[in-house]
Amino acid sequence: MTLETVIPASEAKRSVSRDPRSRGWVGPGSRAKRSPGMTFVASLLLAFLLPLAANAMTVKTVQGPTGVETWLSEEHALPMIAVNISFPAGSSYDPSAKPGLANMTASLIDEGAGDLASDAFKQALESRGIRFSAQADRDFIVVTLTTLKENADEAFRLAALAFAHPRFDPEAVERIRAMILAGLKQEDEDPSRAAVNAWYAAYFGAHPYGRPANGTPAGIAAIKPEDIKAFAADHFVRGGIKIAVSGDISEVQLKKYLQQLFTPLPAKAVPVAAKPTTFGNAGTRTVVRNEAAPVAIFGFVGPMRADADFIPAFVGNYILGGGGFSARLMDQVRDKRGLTYGISTDINDFRASSIIVGSVQSDKTKILTALDVTKSEMARFAKDGATQRELDDAKTYLTGSFPLGLDSNAKIARTLNAYQRSGLPADYVVKRNGMIQAVTLAQVNAMAKKYYDPARLVVAIAGNPAPAPAQKSNAPAAR
Length: 479
Description:
Elements: H1 36-49, H2 52-55, E1 60-63, E2 68-74, E3 80-87, H3 101-107, H4 118-126, E4 131-136, E5 141-148, H5 152-164, H6 170-188, H7 191-204, H8 217-222, H9 225-235, E6 241-247, H10 251-262, E7 283-287, E8 295-301, H11 310-322, H12 328-335, E9 343-349, E10 354-361, H13 367-384, H14 388-400, H15 409-421, H16 428-437, H17 441-451, E11 458-462
C-alpha cells in the first residue's frame, strides 16, 4: 500500500516480506519515533541537503505494447536497473472459497518457468545476482526485478519466461503451501494481525477487501495447481499493467525489453473490483484473546489518492497521528498519559476505496482509556483544527524527508509504481512537494472537520480489555 503495512504508508507503498507473506505493518506504533525538536532539525537539514532529488528527476512515459503503462527514470551513475511491475491480480480477485490464491500465485513466481524447474530457475537468477520476487496486496501482484546492467538481457528473459510460461509444479506448490500455512499460523498468534483482520472484516464486510489478504488456512488448503494456473492465465495479461523502471537503461533499450516481457501475454484487461457500497457500523468489535497488551485498530473512510482532498488530508493526518513523536496522538496518548509506547494513523488507498486507519497497543486495563483519549483528541482536531505552527512543521518534514524515499533505483521504481497504482500522473513526483507547500491552514482544518469524526470510528480490538483498577481511596473507612 504494505509487510505492506497493515497500515500502509500512503506516500510510498511498502514492500512485503515473503516469509510469511503478510501485508502489513510490523506492529502498533512501529513508525519511526521523532521528538518535535529532532523532527524540525532533521527536516531543516533535509530541506537544505536533499531538495533537488525529486525536482531533478525526469520521469518519461515509454510506449510499450498496448495496455502497458510504463514510466522510466534514467539514472546512469550506477550500472543497475530496478523494475516494479504491477499486475491487477491482488487478493480482491480471490474466489470467496479460496482466499489466498493471489498470495500463493505471487509466492510461486520464482519457482520455475519454461524448461527450468525451480532449482534451475533460481540458480539462473542467483548466478548473475538477479533479484526477482512478487507479493500480492489487495489489488495487485507487485513484481520486483533488480539487476546489474550487464545481466539485463538474462534478467528480462527470465522474467518474461515466468510471466508467459510459469510451471507451478506440484512439488513447488506443496512446498509454498506449507510455507504459507506456517506463516498464517504464526500470524494467528500475533494480536496485531488478528486485530487487522477483524477490522477489515468489520469495515468492508462481504466486499473482497474484507477477506484476509494473505488468505486463510482453509482457503490455502483448498487451492489446487489448476486454480493457480487459471488465475495466472487470467491475470498475467497486458491490460492494466503498471511498470516503473529506474536506473542505467535508455528508452530504446527499455522498449525492447517491454516487447520481450509483454507481447507474449494476452491483450485482454482485468476488471477493477467493484466499489464497496456499504461499510461497517461505528462501534467496537473485540476478538477475545488472552493478551497482556491488546491491540486496537481504528478507522473510517478516507479520501481517494487522486482526489483533491488527499494532499490536505495527508498533511492533516501527519499533524494528528502520522508524525511520530510530533503528532498530537503520540503527545496525548503516550507522552502525557503513558498509555502506550506508540500510536499512529495513516491514509490507505485501494483502487476501489480509501481509509484513514490507526493502531494502538496498551495494557489490557488501559486500552479502552487509550481509545477514549484518541477519540477525544480526534474530536478536538475536528472542532478546532490545527495551528499554523503545526502546519509549517508538517510541511517542513513532509517535503524535506521526501527525497529519502528516492535515494536509490529500487526506491524510485517502488515509489513511481505506487503512484501509478493510485492513478497519479507521471510528473507527480516533481509536483508533489509544491502541492504540499500550497496547502493552507483553512484546507487542513476543513479536512479535519470532514473526516475526523470519532463518532464514525470502526474499532477492532484483539485481546480481552479489562476495566481500569479502581483508585484506592485515602478516606477513612466507614464505621
